[in-house]
Design brief:
Largest sheet: 9 strands, antiparallel
Radius of gyration: 20 Å
Order of helices and strands: HHEEEEEEEEEEEEEEEEEEEEEEEEEE
Oligomer: single chain
Number of helices: 2
Number of strands: 26
């Protein structure tokens, strides 16, 4: 489509394998609404309003406190409430064994990771462990010739909780829309955390929506040189906020972040052509919350490509 502002769509279906709406989506979204995505009018990756009363639509959940309840609902009966604090709510540990890694594997835990007993990183495999406290390699842990193993201790992990979506697959375009309410969160004056993060297959962040004191949101995007670039900040209002972000891999990429149908903050002309999105985390993913406490309420998540 050419001029997105001039296009009015009421009810249509896409009969194509690779159809996209480019930067015109933001004015379109005001006409269509996010519910149009969930009805199949755009190629969705994940749609979840938590009406199942659980996080079963997501691939996994991270450490920290979270609950699906009716107090976190923007619409319908249920939404997701995520705690933001300075300690893990419950122990978050994993013990790995009898597994051969032949592709990419990322394991992250708030407290501890241990691996052994025939845990093998095969030639061509790449395993990365990130733990908030300890990593233990037991007997019969091995890395074959040509395999890669990395281990990191990340002390910024413990306070956070998130849901993870593995449905993206080497995506060269990714967009998401959702609702967020911060009325029950006290965000410290110097605190910030990553609210939505898109990663490549090795677990390196390629895009991140960062929540900062104010409260405001900023979209940060990594270019092909590994440098992050940030949009201008968009201010959040009391009550529910509708957030829409859009990212693409291109040698002249344009990315955007918008709140509550307002004019989007954009970046243009970035070289992100080699970047891809393979999984996404949403919630309180990581950051600094030394003086923050409370919960964030989330609902009606939709992502598309």
């Amino acid at each position: 489509f050419g001029d997105g502002d001039a296009l009015v769509a009421s009810d249509f279906d896409v009969f194509a394998d690779n159809a996209r709406l480019f930067s015109c989506f933001e004015p379109l979204s005001e006409k269509l609404g996010l519910d149009a995505l969930s009805r199949g009018h755009l190629p969705t990756l994940l749609t979840d309003g938590f009406e199942s009363q659980d996080t079963g639509a997501w691939s996994e959940t991270g450490a920290g406190g979270m609950a699906v309840n009716n107090t976190a609902a923007y619409s319908g009966g249920y939404g997701l409430e995520i705690g933001v604090s300075t300690v893990c709510v419950t122990p978050d540990n994993v013990s790995l064994s009898s597994q051969t890694v032949t592709a990419s594997l990322l394991v992250q835990r708030c407290h501890s990771i241990s691996a052994g007993d025939d845990f093998v990183v095969a030639g061509g495999g790449h395993a990365r462990f990130i733990s908030g406290q300890t990593i233990t390699l037991r007997n019969d842990f091995s890395v074959e010739t040509g395999g890669i193993f990395e281990a990191f201790i990340d002390t910024s992990m413990p306070p956070f909780a998130f849901v993870q979506d593995d449905s993206p697959s080497s995506e060269s375009a990714y967009s998401a829309g959702f609702y967020v309410n911060l009325d029950n969160l006290v965000l410290g004056p110097s605190d910030e955390f990553e609210h939505l993060v898109g990663y490549d297959e090795l677990g390196d962040p390629q895009l991140r929506v960062v929540m900062r004191s104010g409260p405001v949101l900023v979209l940060e995007v990594r270019d092909d040189l590994g440098v992050f670039h940030a949009t201008g900040a968009v201010a959040m209002a009391a009550g529910w906020n509708r957030v829409v972000m859009s990212w693409e891999a291109s040698n002249l990429a344009e990315v955007s972040l918008a709140l509550n149908f307002g004019a989007p903050e954009t970046l243009a002309g970035l070289d992100t052509s080699d970047r891809r999105i393979d999984f996404v985390r949403w919630g309180a993913v990581r950051g600094t919350v030394d003086d923050s406490s409370g919960t964030i309420r989330l609902d009606n998540f939709v992502s598309w490509h």
